[in-house]
C-alpha cells in the first residue's frame, strides 16, 4: 500500500481530526476525496468535511469498510462502544488502526480489539494543521514493517514523529499537546506588552508569532540547547539580560514547570 491508493477514515471528526485532515490535504499527502469520516451529528460533519472535500459517512461500519487506515478520534468514554461493532473489520489483515484517543495506550485496547489488529497509538497536536505538528507515538505497536513505513510516509510531511515508551508518552503529550495553549498565552502577553508601548495589535501578534516559530526552528536546525540560545542574545549589562532577570524574579520557569506538574498530577 502506498499513499497513491490510500484511503484514511476518521471515526470522530472533532478539532484534532480536522486539524490532521487539513494538514494532510494541504501538504499534498492525499486529496480530501480519499478521506472519509463519521461523527455523531451528520449535518455538522457534512459542513466541516465539505471544507476539504472529505466524504462524510453515516456510520462507523461504513468508515471501517471504506478506509485502509482507520483513525480512532473519539473521547475516551466512547472507545468501547465504537470498537465493539467493527472489531472484525478493524482486524482485517490489510487495515491499520491509529488511536489518537487521549490517555489510551496499547494495553487499553487488549479487550476492545480482536487479536491480530494492526494498531498504533499516537497523539498529535493542533499545529499539524499547518504541517508543523508533533505526534507522540508509543514505540510498541502491532503494525507490520510495511505499515510502519506507510505511517511514517503519511505523517512525516506534517509532523515530528516522536516514539517513546508507554511510561513517557503522557508527559510528552502534555508538553506537545497542552503547551500550545501556554505558548499562545505567552504570545498574547508579548503582544499586549507591545500594544502597551504603542505597537498596532496585528503587528505585535505577527512579531510574537514569528519570533516563537523562528526560535523553535533555530533549535531544530542547529541543535543548540535553549540555554545557549538565551545566552547568545544576552549581552553583558544589556537590555535582554535585564528582561531575563525580571522573568526569573517573577518565577517564569517555575510557573511553566508547575503547569506541566499540574497536568501530570505531580
Task: Describe the protein's architecture and organization.
With 266 residues, the protein is an alpha/beta fold. The protein folds into two domains: 8-167, 3-Layer(aba) Sandwich (Rossmann fold); 172-264, ProC C-terminal domain-like (ProC C-terminal domain-like fold), CATH 1.10.3730.10. Helices cover 49% and strands 14% of the residues. The chain is built from eleven helices and eight strands. Strands 3-2-1-4-5-6-7-8 form an eight-stranded mixed β-sheet, sandwiched between helices. α1 links the parallel β1 and β2 (35-38). α7 packs antiparallel against α8 and α7 packs antiparallel against α11 (252-264). The model has no long low-confidence stretch (mean pLDDT 96).
SSE topology:
Layout: E1 8-11, H1 15-26, E2 35-38, H2 42-50, E3 55-56, H3 60-66, E4 69-72, H4 79-83, H5 87-90, E5 96-99, E6 118-124, E7 133-138, H6 145-155, E8 159-164, H7 169-196, H8 201-222, H9 226-233, H10 239-249, H11 252-264
Parallel strand pairs: 1-2, 1-4, 2-3, 4-5, 5-6, 7-8
Antiparallel strand pairs: 6-7
Helix pairs in contact: 7-8, 7-11
Keyword list:
ProC C-terminal domain-like fold, single chain, 49% helix, alpha/beta, elongated, 2 domains, Rossmann fold, eight-stranded mixed beta sheet
